[in-house]
């Protein structure tokens, strides 16, 4: 269900009967935190503990977490707990003093990037990272114009909310922002997703220019997670990236969703498209629960901004953040989690694909690694989005104690994003319960 | 020394001879982190460990920390380390699920606020908090105009940087921003600081209106920390707050610097002025090294924004953040740290005041609790700011292993901000070494 604020899978009062404890907590939230907070699900869930791919409610019931991408290497990964506990007890100072953790981390992170990306800057959240990237892009290009996909989400600072159309119509887009259709492989008119997508970006560039606005940047999430999860065909980003560069703007890869091995074929989502960004932003899974984020970029793009504007983020790049992030990167690499995302992701995708023959509401199964999108339609030929059915499935799975959510402009794509440590057994559980829910919902 | 980016106490290459290890780390920072990062001091310091009011370099030398206000209850406070370690190992999920820590914290935090402040929203950084506060203020008032003091610092998102004049001339102020002179008790022309300050705000309001810009908000830091530390006379904020409200705008108290007991007379800096803000923002010391921040506010101010715009901050209000913040609030209250800030702050202020009779460069000693400002002048009668002497003192103290910094438009005010656990013995050390440095620098 999409609420008045455009949020998919939001709790809406009165949509379902609630137990007394849940109702009381919701009342407390309203009283203490006020009206801006939203919960997931028709019957919100209360968690008290997490471990690996599992979350537990106060009664000890286990929920299979196939959604939370902050805890990407598993809830409460012991190496991250150890790193944070140790460094919290040792030193928490910031980048105005010398400290080697930030340098060791930047060095190791940059080693995962393509040639040409030479600097790394620490922020605290993905929103911060995108906000900083915009400031850098506008300084470097001298332009203001921003191009995003039409259901994109990039963050919640005022600057970034102004180019995050998925926040809904009550959060206006900036006058310098243009949206383009997502690279929709399921509904492509010509079959050439890349050409269609590039044409959209070119049209947006012309429209900006027609209004006297110089394009500064094109930004997209490497897996188009809010637009509906579009992963292929690989390479479809090339034309769009070329177009923005020809217009004097830069390409920012928002890897908050698709980074750190999520897509299974590489460390970064943009890599599957064979493009090298000017700036790369990252966040959520970087510290597996500890707040840390950042921007990597080409030195020539950062040069003028750095010289003129300086940048200090009190919490960004503190010693604990760097140690937490190092523990995560180390775990991804030493535990073979990119490979697991690829292998288990393929296994899970095959399992869901097999359900399509049984359940006609499954219009398309797509995604890369452990980020899958399942398009729910009421008519396979017309490809008619079915948001109501999608809501029933998401809430049905919640009742079966499996956590997923939904996305897309029409709110009809299941968003399945398990931790990178997901196992085949856990994939089996997910597929089995999804099968049950689909049978019940039909 | 003020650099090209307007930063006080920034490291400038070539200003002093560096040892090989320091030079190598600085070269690594430039290579890996790029040009936007700045260090403190002519000879930057490398820390590896912190405990209480002390920081230690790799050789084991102890530095008395009279500057870092993130670690406000002391470096590596065991209760905070314990809370973060425990919760990191238990659960780190966000506010889209029910969790009681955020509610317990909001309840306890709101109990420290004056009547009328009824909601609390979690963010991750003080910049986030001010960015959110602007969005709320503009939504509530329908205005855009922002009034700040002329050397204010409120944060580093694009929106907030546009009203943070202390970032220097290379970061332009927004067309909707007006600056007013700080409430300078040392150079007041009439002796009525409050009336002068209110007149400045009224003039800014008229100028905004003359340009067709409706005032949305007046924001100030409760101790004017970047402007030069202005604490009194108590009550001087009243006229300014009245003026912005008459113009249809709101008053935002930025308590990132002055909050959580820092000023010694109350939990919040605004309280000494007998005013009740519409929104209160807070950050740095809230988690004593763990990234957590927030906005408290009047329910009627938050109502429309919350209903229309929703707000989700992935890391803001995660379970660990709430537990860290709870441990800090608990320590401030159970260890009597507000009282200690008042008592030890007065003792330290008296000690520095006593140095004024020996050292004519001390023009004024001011501040509240454990946030002191010492104005350095070359001529006491003319009150001529002496930035060069200020730099020598700050760096001289660093060589004596005492950490402070400097601030103010003319970069001539020593900024002394020890942790709230500071003892009389530590105050004695600071005064004794400051005396030595002042003798040497004169």
Automatic annotation (TrEMBL), chains A, B:
Pfam families on file: Aminotran_3
CDD domains associated with the record: OAT_like (cd00610)
Coiled coil (residue ranges): none
Keyword line: Aminotransferase, Pyridoxal phosphate, Transferase
SUPFAM superfamilies: PLP-dependent transferases (SSF53383)
InterPro entries for the chain: Aminotrans_3, Aminotrans_3_PPA_site, PyrdxlP-dep_Trfase, PyrdxlP-dep_Trfase_major, PyrdxlP-dep_Trfase_small
Cofactor: pyridoxal 5'-phosphate
One MF annotation (Gene Ontology) recorded for this entry: transaminase activity
PANTHER family given in the database record: ALANINE--GLYOXYLATE AMINOTRANSFERASE 2-LIKE, PTHR45688
Family the UniProt entry places it in: Belongs to the class-III pyridoxal-phosphate-dependent aminotransferase family.
Protein name: Aspartate aminotransferase family protein
Organism listed in the record: Tabrizicola soli
């Amino acid at each position: 269900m999409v609420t008045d604020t455009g949020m998919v899978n939001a709790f809406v009062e009165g949509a379902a009967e609630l137990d007394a404890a849940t109702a009381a907590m919701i009342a407390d939230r309203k009283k203490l935190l006020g009206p801006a907070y939203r919960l997931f699900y028709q019957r919100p869930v209360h968690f008290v503990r997490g471990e690996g791919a599992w979350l537990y409610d106060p009664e000890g019931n286990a929920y299979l977490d196939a959604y939370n991408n902050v805890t990407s290497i598993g809830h409460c990964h012991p190496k991250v707990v150890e790193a944070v506990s140790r460094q919290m007890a040792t030193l928490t100072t910031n980048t105005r003093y010398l400290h080697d953790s930030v340098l060791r981390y930047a060095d190791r992170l940059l080693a995962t990037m393509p040639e040409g990306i030479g600097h790394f800057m620490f922020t605290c959240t993905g929103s911060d990272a995108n906000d900083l990237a915009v400031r850098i892009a506008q300084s470097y290009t001298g332009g203001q114009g921003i191009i995003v996909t039409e259901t994109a989400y990039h963050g919640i600072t005022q600057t970034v909310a102004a180019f995050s159309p998925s926040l809904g119509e009550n959060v206006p887009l900036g006058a310098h922002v243009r949206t383009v259709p997502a690279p929709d492989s399921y509904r492509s008119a010509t079959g050439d997703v890349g050409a269609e997508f590039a044409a959209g970006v070119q049209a947006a560039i012309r429209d900006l220019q027609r209004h006297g606005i110089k394009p500064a940047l094109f930004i997209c999430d490497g897996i188009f997670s809010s637009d509906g999860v579009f992963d292929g065909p690989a390479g479809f980003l090339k034309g769009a990236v070329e177009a923005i560069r020809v217009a004097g703007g830069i390409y920012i890869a928002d890897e908050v969703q698709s980074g750190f091995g999520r897509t299974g074929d590489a460390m970064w989502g943009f890599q599957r498209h064979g493009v090298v960004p000017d700036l790369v932003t990252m966040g959520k899974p970087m510290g597996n629960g500890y707040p840390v984020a950042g921007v990597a970029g080409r030195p020539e793009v950062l040069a003028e901004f750095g010289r003129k504007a300086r940048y200090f983020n009190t919490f960004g790049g503190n010693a604990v953040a760097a140690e937490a992030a190092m523990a995560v990167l180390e775990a991804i690499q030493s535990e073979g989690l990119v490979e697991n995302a690829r292998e288990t992701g393929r296994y899970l995708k095959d399992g869901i694909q097999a359900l399509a023959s049984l359940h006609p509401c499954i219009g398309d199964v797509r995604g890369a690694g452990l980020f899958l999108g399942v398009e729910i339609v009421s008519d396979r030929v017309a490809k008619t989005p079915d948001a109501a059915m999608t809501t029933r499935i998401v809430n049905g799975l919640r009742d079966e104690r499996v956590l997923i959510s939904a996305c897309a402009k029409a709110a009809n794509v299941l968003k399945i994003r398990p931790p990178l440590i997901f196992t085949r057994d856990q994939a089996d559980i997910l597929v089995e319960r999804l099968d049950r829910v689909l049978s019940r919902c039909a």
